[in-house]
Amino acid sequence: xxxxxxxxxxxxxxxxxxxxxxxxxxxxxxxxxxxxxxxxxxxxxxxxxxxxxxxxxxxxxxxxxxxxxxxxxxxxxxxxxxxxxxxxxxxxxxxxxxxxxxxxxxxxxxxxxxxxxxxxxxxxxxxxxxxxxxxxxxxxxxxxxxxxxxxxxxxxxxxxxxxxxxxxxxxxxxxxxxxxxxxxxxxxxxxxxxxxxxxxxxxx
Length: 204
Hints:
The protein has helices at residues 4-7, 11-14, 21-41, 46-63, 74-96, 101-112, 115-138, 144-154, 159-166, 170-196. It is mainly α. Helix 4 crosses helix 5 (74-96). The protein is globular, with a radius of gyration of 20 Å.
């Protein structure tokens, strides 16, 4: 990630300015795939999920000016928007046609999910998403070997196994792994500040 991202004004502040078209473009580029992934986790089929993502983005665009960060994290607010959209989707589909078995089962689960349950789901997926997003950015910074070492370590391979596979010394594996890990943490913190307007210490 470029260094200016660290000090740039939070996207959530910029996107509330209707004249900042680039801010909205950045917002959609970052959140569109995340929202889509959450909807798929809710067993909404891909075609319906595509349409629903656009509906949710439209709702966010219309209501972002009313979002008050003093009253809670953006993810909590996003949680409510996505959950309500999912409720409405299942209710609408149920009226129009018989739900598929997978949809029916999850519609029943969704009815019993508390706000905390939904927040936990979004939090878990968010942590994975933002880490993957940051790691993808590191591919432009580190050599292929460094990223390969780190990825293989995430997949559970030992330093010795990685060293053998990539024809590296054990010390080189540790060095590359630690370099990527340190930069990844920095990237994640910067992304949290950029896309959530939160201090890096609030990311879990």
